[in-house]
Design brief:
Layout: E1 7-10, H1 15-25, H2 29-37, H3 43-50, H4 66-78, E2 82-86, H5 91-106, E3 110-114, H6 127-135, E4 138-144, H7 151-160, E5 163-167, E6 181-183, H8 199-211, H9 219-228, H10 235-248, H11 254-262, H12 272-289, H13 293-300, H14 304-339, E7 348-353, H15 360-371, E8 375-381, E9 386-392, H16 399-404, E10 412-416, E11 419-425, H17 429-443, E12 452-455, E13 457-459, H18 466-472, E14 487-500, E15 506-513, E16 516-522, E17 538-549, E18 552-563, E19 568-571, H19 578-582, E20 590-594, H20 597-603, E21 610-612, H21 616-621, E22 628-633, H22 638-645, E23 652-658, H23 661-664, H24 671-684, E24 687-688, H25 689-700, H26 704-716, E25 720-723, E26 726-729, H27 742-758, H28 762-773
Parallel strand pairs: 1-12, 2-3, 2-4, 4-5, 5-6, 7-8, 13-14, 16-18, 19-23, 20-21, 20-22, 22-23
Antiparallel strand pairs: 8-9, 9-11, 10-11, 14-15, 14-17, 15-16, 17-18, 24-26, 25-26
Helix pairs in contact: 1-2, 5-8, 5-9, 5-13, 6-7, 8-9, 9-10, 9-12, 11-14, 12-14, 13-14, 14-15, 25-26
Length: 779
């Protein structure tokens, strides 16, 4: 067996809706199923989702206060007033700032941008920043991707005589800032048809309204911010990203070109994953470590040398960010293992002096991935006596709701069910930890700590082909509310299995089903090469893709989880080094079995769980359910193994069957051999056995052990006598069959046992064990 890392949930689609899409759109069953699983269960909605190339963007003036904002900005431009764009320090904020700066600059505005420093100012508009704007003569501030909660700064701006336009997409509270205009798709009285725009999407709508037409040249920035902010990739966001990706694939923006060049990405191959894993982390890194200004400057510059210098600076900061995250994550893991073991901590709360508050959210996410527990990661500041941090949760534990019950010790916190940020006193950290642990014990059960993987389809390897994968790609770009399809490939056989990569940490596997093969890659799955038997039937969860090499296209699957529901046989007979067995079998789940006393000490140094089984009673009483069983040596008879396994359900069986040459390796002499040896004794006897047996064995081409064995059988049957080392025929003349000799029968059994267990083919051995275990498993 091989247990999956997560619980697999295959979505059940409404068959009638699937059939309707197949007939109405002339698409495959696989694509129709994926569409229905995403909520597009009518021909009209599915067509709108799939074939949106000619769709138009929504009218920006459907957003409340858009007319007021446009009028005021136009007047500011006309009067040459000083305008400030107030942004945020993440990728959404950086691209939002870029969009507004490029738009207003193109209209001839006197405009500058301001992004608060995460470490000295915190999040969002603040009074000192607005005071600075006033001091330098700014008369109009436009926020992007922030401001909906800026009640006090808005009042300060009003008192200073600065007009304030807020553009934002975060959840509006019950009280809104008092300002000239608020452009926000989620306002209670908003008529805008799509509520899930990113901050850069809202800025894009304002740019559209100001310019009087869709600013297609800005779509590449809007796509970056939209993907980076993890908003719903449906409706208008989907249109933004699809069109923006086309722009990015031929972008002339010097900053983007320099950045992706350093990341070794080809322009023409850019996808939403390039944004999510290459561009966005680099833009985010700047604001996590210092001022986010260089990220905006990178996207605005028209100077190639400056673009290269800024890109190198940002790339270096991202590497520094990665290093900081790695170090903090390692320290956090050590803290969990030493102080807060997951057995006693259904919620993990860790913190340390000096941890960078800009990356605690990333570290929290890493811990959730490792332990699948709600996690709060805090940066301690002993001088101020506070802890500042971020939280990430798991399905079933509403962070915002549960943290709300500790408002008395959380003067500053906010978020939603799966993520939150907070500040609290250092003295209150332990109190918060104990409260959350108690709440988790009341709300979560054991199954809740096993992550769930939702799957779009259950397929066989033979179902997968290039046409199907290409059709599935019509769903792209993938993201929130339109995830990249995950499928389960069931009942797959293995024809190739090996570790790959510089450190052999990855897995390459070839799956086979009815003569159809499919290559799979599992990044970080290298250790599974020793966990999968070549005759096992696998189920694999992964994402299908097309691999192109030397102009040859082949389907492939990127593996995310593996499961084997049947017991597995690992044939390690003949392994010369015992340490090769140790690498296959873990101490805590294994039971090593030795049948012969003389072999016990040989295996004990390699595993503390070696059991010496010398009787059927001991064999019957050993507990093997769920274990990895290693048969270290050969039993005296096959029935001993049968007694061990009868009615039990081990997950794996490793057959080593070590044996020494002087015990089992000799084949049984046949009856002709016995006849010849008997005739020799009758003709030449008596003779000195010890002196002559080597000569006799050499003459016949036998091993000396042949002579010893036949002598033992003859002596046991009273065919011969030995006096002072001289062998001769016995005086008693009687007919007896060789089978009447106990030594002969034991040897026959041993040879038969060797043939069945030691020299049989792996398939034959598997069939034999299957016969013993067939009642123990339900596949």
């Amino acid at each position: 067996m091989l247990h999956s890392k997560t619980r697999w949930n295959v979505r059940q689609s409404d068959e009638a809706s699937v059939e309707e899409l197949i007939n109405g759109l002339n698409i495959s069953s696989a694509l129709a199923t994926l569409l229905v699983n995403r909520g597009f269960n009518t021909v009209e909605s599915a067509r709108y989702f799939l074939f949106d190339e000619k769709k138009e963007f929504h009218d920006p003036f459907l957003l409340k206060d858009m007319d007021l904002a446009v009028s005021r900005i136009q007047r500011a431009i006309k009067n040459n007033e000083s305008i400030m764009i107030f942004g945020d320090y993440d990728a959404d904020g950086v691209t939002s700032t870029t969009v507004m700066m490029r738009t207003l600059t193109s209209l001839g505005a006197d405009v500058q941008f301001y992004i608060p420093n995460r470490f000295t100012e915190g999040y969002g508009p603040n009074v000192p920043a607005f005071q600075y704007a006033n001091d330098i003569g700014v008369s109009l501030i436009i926020t992007v991707d922030t401001g909906i909660a800026a009640i006090e700064p808005a009042q300060a701006a009003k008192e200073m005589g600065i007009d304030l336009i807020i553009t934002d997409h975060h959840e509006p509270g019950p009280i809104l800032p008092e300002c000239l205009a608020i452009i926000h798709p989620k306002l209670p009285d908003s008529r805008y048809p799509f509520k899930e725009l990113a901050g850069v999407g809202v800025a894009f709508k304002l740019a559209h309204a100001l310019l009087g037409n869709v600013p297609n040249d800005l779509l590449e920035f809007v796509a970056i911010g939209t993907v980076a902010d993890l908003v719903s990739l449906t409706d208008e966001n989907r249109l933004i990203v699809k069109k923006g990706l086309k722009k990015l694939q031929s972008t002339q923006n010097l900053g983007i070109r320099s950045l992706i060049s350093l990341a070794n990405v080809k322009l023409a191959e850019m996808t939403e994953e390039t944004i999510g894993f290459t561009i966005a982390p680099r833009l985010n890194a700047v604001g996590r470590l210092d001022s986010a200004d260089p990220a905006v400057e990178l996207l605005l510059t028209e100077d190639a040398l400056e673009a290269e210098a800024l890109a190198e600076e940002i790339d270096q900061m991202n590497k520094e960010r990665q290093s900081i995250v790695h170090t903090m994550a390692e320290e956090a893991i050590q803290q969990v293992e030493a102080e807060y073991p997951i057995e006693d901590n259904p919620v993990i709360v860790v913190g340390k002096e000096g941890w960078n508050p800009g990356v605690v959210g990333i570290v929290a996410s890493r811990l959730v991935e490792k332990y699948y527990r709600p996690v709060i990661c805090l940066s301690f500041d002993s001088q101020q006596g506070i802890a500042k941090g971020s939280a990430r949760s798991i399905t079933g534990f509403d962070l915002f709701h549960n943290l709300s019950q500790s408002r008395d010790i959380l003067p500053h916190f906010g978020g939603h069910p799966m993520a939150a940020g907070m500040t609290l006193k250092l003295d209150d950290v332990d109190i918060l930890r104990q409260r959350l642990i108690q709440l988790a014990k009341e709300q979560l059960n054991e199954d809740d700590f096993i992550p769930i993987t939702d799957l779009d389809a259950e397929l066989r390897v033979a179902d997968v082909n290039l046409e199907m994968i290409a059709e599935i790609q019509q769903l792209a770009p993938f993201g929130i509310d339109n995830p990249k399809p995950k499928v389960m490939l069931k009942e797959a056989n293995v024809s190739l299995l090996k570790r790959i990569g510089t450190n052999k940490t990855h897995l390459k596997i070839t799956l086979e089903d009815n003569d159809v093969t499919l290559d799979g890659i599992g990044f970080g799955f290298g250790e599974y090469a020793e966990q999968i038997s070549m005759d096992a039937s696998l189920a694999i969860v992964g994402e299908l893709s097309i691999n192109e090499w030397n102009n040859i296209k082949k389907p492939q699957v990127f593996i995310q989880d593996i499961r084997i529901q049947e017991w597995q046989l690992f044939d390690i007979r003949g392994a010369k080094r015992l340490d090769t067995i140790v690498t296959h079998v873990h101490h805590e789940t294994s039971e090593w079995i030795v049948f012969n006393k003389e072999n016990y000490d040989k295996f004990l140094p390699y595993n503390p769980n070696v059991s010496l089984i010398l009787s059927d009673e001991e064999a019957e009483n050993i507990i093997l359910d769920g274990k990895h069983v290693v048969f270290c040596d050969l039993p005296p008879q096959k029935e001993r193994i049968e007694a061990i396994l009868r009615g039990k359900s081990p997950e794996r069986i490793y057959c080593h069957f070590y044996q020494t040459n002087d015990i089992f390796s000799m084949a049984t002499p046949n009856r002709d051999h016995f006849k010849w040896y008997y005739a020799l004794i009758a003709k030449r006897g008596p003779f000195n056995l010890e002196e002559r047996k080597a000569e006799v064995a050499k003459f016949k081409g036998w091993q000396v052990s042949y002579i010893d064995f036949m002598t033992e059988v003859f002596f046991e049957l009273e065919f011969v006598k030995i006096d002072n080392g001289m062998i001769s025929l016995s005086d008693a003349k009687q007919k007896r069959d060789l089978s009447e000799s106990q030594a002969f029968c034991i040897k026959q059994q041993q040879v038969k046992l060797e043939n069945e267990l030691l020299y049989s083919k792996a398939g034959q051995l598997k069939d034999w064990f299957d016969g013993l275990l067939q009642n123990a498993y339900v596949n």
